[in-house]
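Need the bound structure for PRP, inputs here:
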Amino acid sequence: MKNGNLKIAVQKSGRLSEKSLELIEESGIKLTQEGKLKLISVGQNFPVELLFLRDDDIPQYVADKVADIGIVGENEVMEQDKPVDIADRLGFAKCRLSLAIPQDIKYNGLTFFIGKKIATSYPVILEKFLKEKKINAEIHEISGSVEIAPSIGLADAIFDIVSSGSTLISNRLKEVEIVTRSEAVIISNREMTSEKKQILEKLLFRVHSVLNAKNNKYILLNAPNGNLDKIIQLLPGMKSPTIMPLAEKGWSSLHSVVNENDFWQIIEKLKEYGAQGILVIPIEKMIV
Ligand code: PRP
Ligand code: ZN
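Answer from helper R.:
Posting the output first, comments after.
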């Protein structure tokens, strides 16, 4: 049965590695620990095998069937441009791929880059963008520490990942153009056996229930009956909220699910509508 395992490439170390492992473990998959220098880890209760690789290599390995799927930043998928499919978007490790220039230099639009030297580890994405915008610039490919290139006179600008923006600030650079955005995605080989596709389906189902749970909270509150209609509008829940009468006349208890993104806005409205005793509880798994 070993060969039937779905092989998953994950980043060995870097911005995605911890969250990728967390997602797999929260999906109820127990992994073997193979010592410190682990290159492979096997699922104890689910037919998967994890391969720990450099993120730049993951698209190639998935295209070559060394791994069946991979968890990787979309930035690498775009840059490597290999024949793989995006099976799912995971919503973490969000970042931008942006052009940045020294803070004290005036920026007057894309024409700024004509004839300029731009340092990057993402030459493919940058070249495509410059071509599209008909900007003739020189791309200087370097593999790391791109952000120091302008200060040492190696380039006029950089094109790199921006997440919090602190790397730019500490190198006295400013983001002037967002070229594209990226997040963690699951990529898959295009010729998987139906057996492996089935394992992937099961895995994606679990992954969704974990991600949904993370994005939502369970909410309980007491509300005056007169405002119940308005509150139900605010909290549609998964189907519709559960409502139970309280011992105190004219009041009800309401249970529902609320999305993290709208959370504070909704809480403010709820208070306006007289809700009391609001409890908000994390959800461990959410099957929709
Ligand atoms: C990226 C990028 C910057 C930093 C930006 O490196 O090269 O150094 O993240 O993040 P910030 O806006 O939050 O400061 P990453 O950690 O992905 O390593 P790598 O590029 O060497 O793979
Ligand atoms: Zn990398």
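Comments: The chain has a mean pLDDT of 94. DSSP finds eight helices and 15 strands in the chain.
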